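Q: For a teaching session next week I want to show students how multiple molecules come together into a single three-dimensional assembly. I've collected the sequence lines for a complex. Could you give me the predicted structure tokens for the whole thing so I can convert them for display?
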Amino acid sequence: MDDPTSMTDSPITTVAPGWAIVALGILGALAVTAAVLDGALAARARGGPGGKMGGPVRPFGEAARLMRQRRRTTVEADRLLWRIGGAGLLVTAALMVTVVPLGEWTIFDLDVGVMWFNAMDVMVWALVWLTGWGANSAHSLVGGYRFLAHGLGYELPLMFALVAPAIAAETLNVGAVAAAQEGLWFAVWMPVAFLVYLLGVAAFSVWGPFAPAIGTDVSGGARAELSGVDRLVFEAGRYALLAAGAAFAVPMFLGGGAGPLLPGWAWVLVKTVALLAVLVWLRRRLPAFRPDKFMEVGWMLLLPAVLLQDLVVAVIAVWRS
Amino acid sequence: MDHEGHEGMDHGSHEGMEHGSHEGMDHGGHEGMDHGDMEMSPGGIPLAEGGEDRDGLEMDVLQVRLGPVLRDWPAGLVLHCSLQGDVIVEAQAELVDGRARQDDDVVGPARGIDNIASLLALAGWDDAAAEARRIRDTALESGEGAAGSELERLRRRVRRSWTLRWSLRGVRRLSDKEAHARRLPADAVGDTYDRLMGMLDRAVAGVAATAAGDIGTRTNDAGRTLSTDHLAHLVMGLDLATARLVLASLDIHELLAGQAEHEVSHG
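A: Of course. Below is the structure for the complete assembly, covering every listed component.
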């Protein structure tokens, strides 16, 4: 890697820490958008609004219900770790977006922003497992371990998918990666890395095909015993992770704030919402990837594919310089 | 927080001593008895006993009961499982109040479609499961004929999904001989994916037959009555989630209490 001082020519302005509130607000709005979209799509599948809490308003009804619901607990629950697990997802998502530049502004202009994001998504392993562990219930624990089994399958491909843009841009600074895509988005000439990254986002959000950790077949798995506010925070955390993952893809693969007419920040939001919609829709199309089977796909297919992608990107990067 | 936690622990283990010995009595005949002295039950829940795992090493055995009230689960079925990790090493099936549902008039295609919805939900495909439930409701409300074209569409959709095929292929493959020995219907032969396709085919055929006014197909139901005796063997050696997929794939319309209900079946 280069001398770190050479990265201070980042095109990004670091804003005052107080703006973190705004970033949180945007993250929250994106998470709500995802939940509303999911509610609308679910209602369509059921054919009509169905029930009093159907359709796009479902997330609000669901939130109101959970806030009023009495918080249950289980016998000998490991409460501290349980709560850390449940609430941690939301915190992790918030920490992820701190390095995502909104147009030209960012909260942390880290030289190792890509690694920061990666470290946050690995934290989800511990959090989901703790949620499963804390409840002291068999189904919860099985769910927690199922997430780890998925993790073994998706995490390495995800890491190597993040390596591709970093090699091409010759930096780990997120803003600089975005700036390096002048004219041609990384998503276009490294599609494998982009697709694997999107799978990774679904996976660390325990979303869609990667939801067996909280699946019906293990009676709700890691979230089986969560109720009331605890459940609300856990679910919000999943949507927030999905939103943060989509937002991070924008500077990494979709050229950041680049685009005609609109200002940079608006383009970042437009691209984020578009990706988020794709991720939400994915859940409608795909059944669960059972963890025992997905392991093979992760190691035999995704990992070699994304390593090959890295090789191609590295060769092109050397040839260009 | 800390203080509370300590108190809880103390209380738990005191209580546990009493409960522990009770539990030991209940489980009379288990190998677990010789661990009796070490057995404790924090909070009234007995700790897992040790047992030999498939690889010959010792691993905790946990008693978990599935059912009788569980989403996407055959009504009234209770499965007492001994788990090592999430693998069912021993199981015993029984039926809660088997006679209550004899006069259940939800028969034929609607019941079959409901089972399809359950299997799709367990396979983690909420969207297709929701569609199947909607078709079931159509079949119940406005007559089965009305559900025909929608059901055909669902069948096409499920058949087209290669991820579903990949996920269910090879799960608990049953040979002719095995199916016969377990008194399962002939269409249970094959793996879970084959059984799902069979369910869809039967539902489509059933709906078409009802639409044509052929009531005779309803007697098919009798062939879909399974005895609890044979269920436990089917799920032994599978993990919890797979076991539920397999049970759902049997398209159970009615359950009979088996004779061997009180015997523990050993794998």
